[in-house]
Amino acid sequence: AAALSALRPRPGARVLLLDKADFPRDKSCGDGIAPHALDELARLGAAEVLADRVPVTRLRLRSPGGVDVGAELRRPDYVVPREVFDARLVAVAVGRGAELVRHAVRAVDIRPGSVVLDDSFEARVVVAADGANGVLRRLVGSGRQPPAAMAVAVRGYAQAPPGPPEQVIVMDGRDWPAYAWSFAAGDGTANVGFGMLLPSLQAAPSGGRRELHARLLELLPGIEPTRLRSHHLPLSSARPAQPPGRVLLAGDAASLINPLTGEGIFYALLSGRLAGAAAVGLPDPGTAYRASLARELGRHLRHTTLLARLTADQRVLEAGVRAAGRSPGAFDALVEVGLGRGLITRPLLQALAGELFARARRVVVR
User: Fold this and answer.
1) Burial class of 96 by CB neighbour count within 10 A (0 to 12, 13 to 18, 19+)
2) Per-residue b/e over 119-154, b at no fewer than 16 CB within 10 Å?
3) Can you tell me whether residue 109 is helix, strand or coil?
4) Residue 319 near residue 352, CB atoms below 8 Å
5) Which of 6, 15, 130, 172 could make a disulfide contact with 134, Cβ separation 3.0–4.6 Å?
6) pLDDT in tens, 117-153
7) Tell me, what DSSP letter sits at residue 271?
8) Against a cut of 0.70, is the pTM above it?
């Protein structure tokens, strides 16, 4: 995304993509491409990467208390394995003039007018998209993600349930926040997985992958997942500050993962686009990029952090799911906050307050 963004205003710019893997390559992920991510692809001139994929128009939520809510999405999602999606996006960037080189970065030398990687590659600006525990984030002084703001998930693939494709989220009341998902791709397969916070996983009796696998099978009974892989999700509730200068942190390297849902593809595309734009011709790309991120996502990220804290109380979570079932406005607002750049809206607050008040009355009457 950063490469495409830099090449749009300057098609003749010299843009190098460094990746430690060859493409296509698997990437552990939920594979959900939400509507705002489609908007970003269109802005980058890369909407064709989804041209042959099946739109998914329905989302279903199940709360820890068993409240089941399903509704049509205002705009469809897509479910595309990252093995396919990433390779297509790279192909578009290379087709526009970027050069792809396989290389794992180990060292960074920031000079007055450039950045040198491994004494081999010199550039005016480097966009770091190598994750929260990547080399570049650490070497520019941003440090590792704190464990309390890190989630861990396991992902696999399975046969999709019969019927029209839908996205299903099953919330786990133990060690909340934690949930399993089944995202049908429309081709007979589904991306399935389970995720929870890192400290909760570390405290679980069996711990590690065994715990993740067991919870996945418990919450989605009857599935037979294959290609199970685990991955870390650095939540946006503990983001590193983007420093001034010539190294720009994008995607997971900037801890741009929604703390409510684990969504990160939209944030990655958006931050990549903004980083690519800042990299072209600005005297202090880091400062300009930090300002553009704040304009595009600052208020939204504050709202997601607040809502994540509120829904850590399962009573609030249950009320929120019930509210989404009763109010289309509340359902749409939750989808926007969880998958896009939405805010806590008045309809959502009113519906949530109404559900909490009704529950309090029931408790008093009993």
Assistant:
1) middle
2) eeeebebbbbbbbbebbbbbbbebeebeeebbbbbb
3) strand
4) yes
5) 130
6) 999 999 999 999 999 888 899 888 888 899 999 999 9
7) H
8) yes
